[in-house]
Amino acid sequence: MSDLSRRDFLRLAVLAPVLPALLAACKKGPQERVVNFFNWSTYIGKDTLSGFSAESSIHVNYDVFADEEEMFAKLRSGALGYDLIVGTDYMIPRLTALRLIDAFPEGALKNIGNIDPKFRGMPCDPDNAFTVPYLWGTTGIGYNKSKLSKAPSSWWDLWDEKYKGKISMLDNSRDCISTALLMSGLPETTSDERTFAKAKELLIRQRPLVKQYASATYIDSLISGEIVLAMAWSGDVLQASRENPQLDYVIPKEGSYMWVDNLCLVRGSAHREDALRLVDFLLRPENAADIANTVRYGSPNLAARAKLDKALLKDPRVFPSAEIAGRLKFHTLLDAEVSALWSETWSDVKVL
Q1: How far apart (Å, rounded) are the C-alpha atoms in residues 329 and 22?
Q2: What share of the chain in percent tops pLDDT 70?
Q3: Which neighbouring-strand residues pair with 343?
Q4: pTM to 2 decimal places
Q5: Nearest C-alpha neighbor of 147 from the set 170, 165, 171, 174
């Protein structure tokens, strides 16, 4: 089995309870202290939750999702039982607009000061009310060095016909459409349908070359050599390279995006006090460092920096150089009208 991966559906037994078990636990009565945590699959340290439970006597039900849209759809449909979720920065305005998450009570987190000031006051939550930064990473190209004559350097490599049937794209509208807009020289805020069609046409043109749209299983395909190029999230590839050292990751020359995943409190959850205790536990430097060292993503926890693996700190694929960082930007927050255009476009790309 491959090492832990953020978007990997291989479950570890200690972290594997799914929703039926979660809901069953909720019915056992108030005497049992639990936190129902909805997160990316195995996007946490190996012993983090067991360590929390041993210290606090609070059990954590860890349920997982494959992408943000799945998480959003579940919460919007009224899925019951969740106390704590992880939401990517550009998803936060949608969660707050529909009142799906609550603000953190002022003064409830004694360890919040450990977060790097660079990750506070972000556009998605300027008042630091609804989010606690958890991990951050980038979107780029993962590739198998043993299967290529030269390393990819451009997003256009994912449109190269010589790799037909060996390409994987994330099953994620935000990453795919943002990249197509970037390649077309268009801003993310483009709302004119005729202009936006350029990005749509680019993705449709690529469609016959793509073997799969996957956000969970693409790493297994890279490891096995079934695919040789993949739109990928940084930490996923670095985790997989433990199993297959031929895997590598690059930020394309045209630029790309970085993102921050945040801990958020589900509105009206039943276990608020214990959820806050878990968040504070995750904010401790030793715990934040262990999570980052395990999943190979950047930690926004400044106090944890001294405890990070030296190799991780020196890895420009995790902590980009100034030159590479200059080619990265955060996703723009979209209004409802533009978001609808994105959803319609992505549906057309996937259907065709």
Answers
A1: 37
A2: 90
A3: none
A4: 0.88
A5: 165
- Rounded to whole angstroms, how far apart are CA atoms 64 and 195? 37
Taken as a whole, the chain contains a residue count of 352
Nearest to 297 by CA among 73, 44, 30: 44
**Ramachandran sector of residue 185 (left: φ over 0; alpha: ψ -120 to 50; beta: rest):** left
| Closest-CA residue to 22 (of 80, 76, 78) | 80
Q: What is the pLDDT of residues 229-283, one digit of tens each?
A: 999 999 999 999 999 999 999 999 999 999 999 999 999 999 999 999 999 999 9
Q: Is the pLDDT of residue 11 over 50?
A: no
Q: Are 331 and 259 in contact (CB under 8 A)?
A: yes
| Helices 48-56, 272-282: crossing angle, 10 deg rounding | 120
Q: Name the phi and psi angles at 67, rounded to 5.
A: -160, 170
State phi, psi for 69 to the nearest 5 degrees: -65, -35
Check pLDDT > 60 for residue 2: no
CA distance 99 to 115: 25
Give mean pLDDT, residues 138-152: 96
CA dihedral 157, 161, 164, 170 (to 10 degrees): 40
Only one residue has tokens 């039943």, namely 270
Cα of first residue to Cα of last residue in the chain, in angstroms, is 34
Task: Report the relative pairing of strands 132-144 and 256-266 from DSSP bridges.
Answer: antiparallel
Q: How confident is the model over 288-316, as a mean pLDDT?
A: 97
| Residue-level pLDDT at 68 | 85
Q: Write out the two tokens for 304.
A: 């944890």
